[in-house]
Write a structure and sequence with these properties.
By secondary structure, this protein is of the alpha+beta class. The protein has helices at 3-11, 16-21, 29-43, 51-71, 74-83, 86-89, 94-97, 101-121, 136-140, 366-413, 415-445, 459-467, 485-491; strands spanning 124-135, 146-158, 163-174, 177-188, 194-203, 207-215, 220-229, 235-244, 249-257, 262-270, 274-282, 287-296, 301-310, 314-323, 328-337, 340-349, 352-361, 450-457, 481-483, 498-500, 522-529, 532-539, 544-546, 552-557. It is elongated, with a radius of gyration of 34 Å.
Length: 558
């Protein structure tokens, strides 16, 4: 049915036909007929003698009549509410074939689901990491700075709605030795609560195996795995139980039986600003404990402390990271342990990682440890000050002017469309003028609602063009706003109230147009009521009801 059509309906829901008749999308048939009769009294061509006025009236009356014919037909209105005008003008067979709203929505959901399945089946997710192990002591002793390198890559591809193939590989080099491995896995979603994985690996760890997972209850999951080594035929059996302890925490127990049996108990907790995790691991030849705590200072930055202690490690780690773009995060950690003093620098971009561990000293030298902890934070603070200064003095003005240039260039591209729209709006306002003025005078005589000024469009861009005409191109373009005082005075009802319906784009109202396509728009209304002055600004899709006491200008009297 057209992905674009669906996107338009879900994202915009402009409801231009409802705006033309000035009615709510929930309007009854009687309200639609009443609105049509009201507008027909203004725009019917037979009311005008002048040929020019008759042509203007004919053009606007055709819009009103088309809106009425669609919205007064229950079936056409259903199509329009779901698909917009495209559903009525694109020649689809949807209208003639389907008779009820339920049928229309069912067909719509079927098309949507089919497109999602096609997109899902074609979805491929690559990921990878690259590690460069550096050593300063090795460099100072006259050897290469690079101690070792490693890389890993993985590609996931959905071959069907329930089946996924994962291909991965890794290579590692340390000194003059190295190795690698390649792995293939097939994951099958057996049901909504269980899955099966079949794995085969060749290289340093040649094996075949399978793993199955199942939701045991609403809060518990069990995983069972079995693998066979192709080198010595040894078996490894693993069993993991995971349980959701609360809304923000979970725990797990893992039992591994085989050549190196172990049992591990883990715990994780994740809140909006804090997260923590810990694990205890025991076995005949190994024991250890590890944990870390992360605090998010802002949506862009976080700090982390962690540590490990056991038969193979004794270390403490502190560091943090910052998001440097929508898809990139830079992290840096300092590690102190029995293996020496390290920095670890990580760059995460999407699903790709660059990791650079740097060995600073093999011994736990207090001076080196202090410098390793202080230098990164001092450097970060210094760079942040430099960045803030450059942002205020250089970057922000540059991007500001660049965005201005883009906006003005876009206005130049849509100039013909805007001029045509403004001309049509002015013509529509010409026919509204007399009735609008009579309503305004009637309200003014009894101290009722009088719209003194109404401006629609990009109000910020309008103020800037008036106060700071910085670019020559701007002088060639009309302001990104439209005076809509006349149509709003016309829409004031006999009781002295004005209501604009929520969820309807205001550019569709008779006497309005879109003065700046693609830009955010607002409506600013200044009005008087019972001797007081009022002012309100609303967004394009927001509703408006006036008069309201909270719109009153403080200290303003007539």
């Amino acid at each position: 049915m057209g992905e674009e059509m669906y996107g338009k309906h879900e994202k915009e829901k402009e409801g231009e036909l409802y705006a033309l008749l000035h009615i709510s999308p929930q309007a009854s048939d009687e309200e639609i007929r009443k609105a049509y009769r009201q507008w027909a009294q203004v725009y019917h061509p037979d009311k005008y003698q002048s040929l020019q006025m008759k042509d203007i009236a004919t053009e606007n009356f055709q819009k009103i009549r088309e809106a009425y014919e669609i919205l007064s037909d229950a079936h056409k209105r259903q199509i329009y509410d779901i698909y917009g005008m495209e559903g009525l003008t694109s020649g689809l067979e949807l209208g003639p074939r389907l008779k009820t709203p339920e049928e229309i929505r069912e067909e719509f959901e079927r098309v949507k689901q089919r497109r999602e399945e096609e997109k899902f089946a074609a979805h491929v997710r690559p990921s990878g990491s690259f590690l460069a192990n550096l050593s300063l002591p090795q460099l100072l002793n006259g050897y290469s700075l690079i101690k070792g390198m490693a890389m890993a890559s993985e590609v996931q591809s959905h071959v069907s709605k329930k089946d996924t193939i994962v291909l991965s590989g890794n290579l590692a080099v340390t000194g003059e030795s190295g190795g690698g491995a390649a792995t293939a896995m097939l994951r099958h979603q057996a049901s909504s609560v269980s899955s099966i994985e079949i794995v085969a690996s060749a290289g340093l760890r040649s094996l075949v195996g399978f793993q199955t997972s199942r939701h045991l209850s609403l809060h518990s999951t069990g995983t069972l795995g079995l693998s066979v080594s192709l080198k010595d035929g040894s078996l490894n059996l693993s069993n993991t139980w995971t349980r959701q302890l609360s809304e923000v925490s979970s725990g797990n127990i893992q039992l591994v039986l085989g050549t190196d049996p172990t049992i591990a108990v883990g715990w994780q907790r994740k809140e909006e600003k804090n997260s923590a995790a810990g694990e205890l691991k025991f076995g005949p030849t190994i024991f250890g404990a590890s944990g870390h705590y992360t605090h998010h200072f802002s949506p862009k930055s976080h700090g982390r402390i962690g540590g490990r202690i056991g038969s193979t490690a004794l270390e403490f780690e502190v560091g943090g990271g910052r998001r440097i773009s929508d898809y990139s995060t830079l992290r840096m950690f300092c590690t102190l342990g029995v293996q020496g003093i390290f920095w670890r620098i990580e760059l995460h971009r999407g699903s790709q990682k660059l990791i650079v561990p740097v060995l600073l000293s093999r011994a736990l030298n207090p001076f080196v440890a202090t410098a390793a902890l202080i230098f990164p934070s001092s450097l970060y603070a210094f760079l942040k000050v430099i960045y803030l200064l450059s942002r205020v003095c250089i970057i922000k003005p540059y991007y500001h002017r660049r965005e201005e240039r883009k906006t003005l260039e876009k206005r130049k591209m849509t100039l013909a469309q805007v001029l045509e729209g403004k001309a049509a709006a002015e013509n529509a306002q010409t026919l509204l003028h007399n009735v609008s003025m009579r309503k305004k005078d009637k309200q003014a005589a009894r101290g009722g609602l009088v719209i003194t000024e109404a401006i629609y469009g990009n109000l910020k861009g309008h103020r800037k063009s008036v106060e700071e005409p910085v670019l020559d191109i701007e002088n060639e373009l009309p302001p990104p706003t439209l005076d809509v005082t006349i149509p709003l005075n016309f829409l004031v009802d006999d009781s002295g109230q004005l209501k604009l319906h929520e969820g309807i784009k205001k550019s569709g109202i008779m006497g309005f147009c879109d003065p700046c396509p693609g830009e955010p728009k607002q409506l600013k209304v200044s009005y008087s009521y019972q001797g007081h002055e009022y002012e309100v600004v609303v967004d394009d899709y927001s509703g408006l009801e006036i008069p309201q006491e909270n719109h009153r200008r403080s200290g303003a009297f007539s």
